[in-house]
Structures are given as C-alpha cells and as structure tokens.
Amino acid sequence: MTVTPQLRNQENIHDVSEDMGGGRGRRLYSLVSELYPICRSITGDGVRKTLEILRKRIALDVHEVPTGTNVFDWTVPKEWNVRDAYVAAADGRRVIDFKRSNLHVLGYSVPVRERMSLARLREHLFSRPDLPDVISAKLSGFFRAAAAAYEPPVVH
After folding, report:
1. Interval 10-30: pLDDT, tens
2. Residue 143 lies in domain
3. What is the CATH number for 95?
4. Which of 92, 88, 89, 85 is nearest to 110 (CA)?
5. Which of 41, 69, 115, 124 is the most buried (most CB within 10 A)?
6. Contact status, residue 53 vs residue 2, Cβ threshold 8 Å
7. pLDDT tens digits, 66-88
8. Is residue 110 domain-shared with residue 154, that is, in the same domain?
9. Domain count, the chain
10. Are residues 108 and 70 part of one domain?
11. Same domain, 7 and 37
C-alpha cells in the first residue's frame, strides 16, 4: 500500500529563504529534526508517520492506495517496514544498528538471521575506507532482487 498526499491549498507554503535567521528558519530546522530519523520508503509506516507530522503544519488530504494497484506504468509495491536490524560482534555488542541510524539498512532488503565470518559479512557491507566514521548510504529503490543481493546480515 502506498500513501498519496495532496495539498489542499498552497497558501501554507512559504519561501523559507526569505527568513532563514528568524522564526521560519527555526521552525524548518525543528521540522527536519523531527522528520529525519523516520525510516521511510515509498510505502509503509514511515510514510504514514511523516505525513501525519506534515498534516499538523499544512493542509493535506491523504489517500491510501492498496498494494498491487496499477498506476499508469507502475504497480504499487508491498509495504516495507523495519522494526529492528543490526550486526553484532562475537561479544554481542551491536556494531551496526538500525536504531542508531536507519541508514544502516538498505531499503527493501530482506531479513537475514545468520552467523557468518567477517569475510563473508564484508561482501554485504558498504563503506568508504577514506571516511571510516561515516555511514555509507546506498539506495536500492524498491526492487527486491537488487536489495536481496546487498542486505546486511545479522551476525551473532
């Protein structure tokens, strides 16, 4: 199922750049701070939560469209929701954790619960050796086949 927002009117949309140092800038920063941590794709609970927050600020009509509905040349995909995901070291410490950043999970990846060697795990990880403290995000779109090749496995 996907959710389609539609603006009821445009009078609530302002050019934030006209007042970045004032109240609008602070409100925009506050909104982005609230929205950023939400894990969302093109479907699912993250989209609903995002639109719920936005509806408090602007007039939106929200319509849900069921999975499998054909829309022009596209079919609405299944929802993708993540409750938890992590990679744990041998001592149980979570070294990669969805709860710290939703960028730790590739969109539309499939669950894996498996022990594996570090060498095998590395085949599924994305990183930038030149930026060791940065989360390297990779976008997959909503194609399950592509995501299945890159899902971060769970290691105990």
Report:
1. 454 455 444 555 688 888 889
2. 83-156
3. 3.50.30.90
4. 85
5. 41
6. no
7. 999 999 988 998 898 999 999 99
8. yes
9. 2
10. no
11. yes
